[in-house]
Amino acid sequence: MPGNYRTAAARGVHDRFMLIRELTSDDLDACLDLAESRRWGREERKWRFLLEGGEGYGITDPDGTLVATTVLTRYGSRTAAVSMVLVAERRERRGLAGRLVRHAVERAGGATVFLNATAMGRPLYERLGFRVTGAAAMHVGVFGGEAAGSSRAAAPEDLKAIADLDAEVAGADRSAMLERYADFAEELRVVEDGRGGIAGYAGRWRNVANTVVGPVIAADPGTARALIADLAARTPGPVRVEVADDRPELAAWLEARGVAAGMRTSDMVLGAGPLPGDRSRFFAPVMSALG
């Protein structure tokens, strides 16, 4: 026992001296290797989008192997998302994930920090002061419905109106992310409000095994369904939509069209305050990593 204790203590000291460093797009392959080792899959487009638009942080073993990651994405100075918290299996339970999340929170300054947690990660975030604000299910399947035909393809001149609407709903300036998303997405569509403005917008982007429909921002549930239908009906293969538990009608509508609920996650916010914005018009995130 004494020998085992000294070995564990030595490992703990060693881990504390493993420095956090910034990640760049040059670390993409290492991030994909780590994700694949934890059965997350090699989501290359997603990782590239996050690393290019956010602040990646990682911890590297003495042999040069990346063993822990996270990404911080800022939305102006009001909110910030923490995502991609991963630790290599051989480095589990040594505090590396906590160190990285605390570092990201410090870097976020006074912004309201939020994240989306799996059941495995939730206890760690609760220990760090995050609280659950809601739950969601990943709906995946081949969409069996028809297009609504009430939306149109977004044009470059729509981007300002999209960003303005998004800022009202998200409660933060996400224009930099949306500008990049316009090139990242397979398609971006809008619904007009009849007064020359935009009542909603949504996009779809290709991941490894499916196409994610998100974000979905809309004035009402009917507009949200129309946007999803117009995107999903044009998508070959399975689509994925993240639906919050407080949207049971949307979940049932997707289920009836072959897009079934799967993995569940928890939305979490650091501290006591709520996320800003108008969540009544928020129907699906860009991706779970970004809100």
Word description of this protein:
With 291 residues, the chain is α+β, with helices and mostly antiparallel strands. It folds into 2 domains: 2-110, Aminopeptidase (3-Layer(aba) Sandwich); 138-284, Aminopeptidase. It has 9 helices and 13 strands. It has helices at residues 2-16, 28-37, 44-53, 96-107, 122-127, 159-170, 175-184, 221-232, 248-256, and strands spanning 20-23, 55-60, 66-75, 79-87, 112-117, 130-141, 152-153, 187-192, 198-206, 211-218, 239-244, 260-270, 282-284. Strands 1, 2, 3, 4, 5, 6, 7, 8, 9, 10, 11, 12 and 13 form a 13-stranded mixed sheet that branches. Strand 10, helix 8 and strand 11 (239-244) form a beta-alpha-beta unit. Helix 2 packs across helix 3 and helix 6 (159-170) crosses helix 7 (175-184). It starts with a helix and ends in a 7-residue tail after the last strand. Residues 1-14 have low confidence and may be disordered.
Please, what is the CATH homologous superfamily of the largest domain? Gcn5-related N-acetyltransferase (GNAT)
**DSSP helical segment count:** 9
Number of domains: 2
Main pleated sheet: 13 strands, mixed
Residue-averaged pLDDT: 93
Could you say which overall geometry the principal axes of the C-alpha atoms support? globular
Radius of gyration: 20 Å
CATH architecture of the largest domain: 3-Layer(aba) Sandwich
What is the total tally of β strands? 13
Q: Which percent bin holds the helix content?
A: 25-40%
Low-pLDDT regions: 1-14
Here the CATH topology of the largest domain equals Aminopeptidase
Which structural class should the secondary elements be placed in? alpha+beta
Between the first and last Cα atoms, what is the distance in angstroms? 47 Å
CATH C-level class of the largest domain is: Alpha Beta
Order of helices and strands: HEHHEEEHEHEEHHEEEHEHEE
What percent of residues are in strands?
25-35%
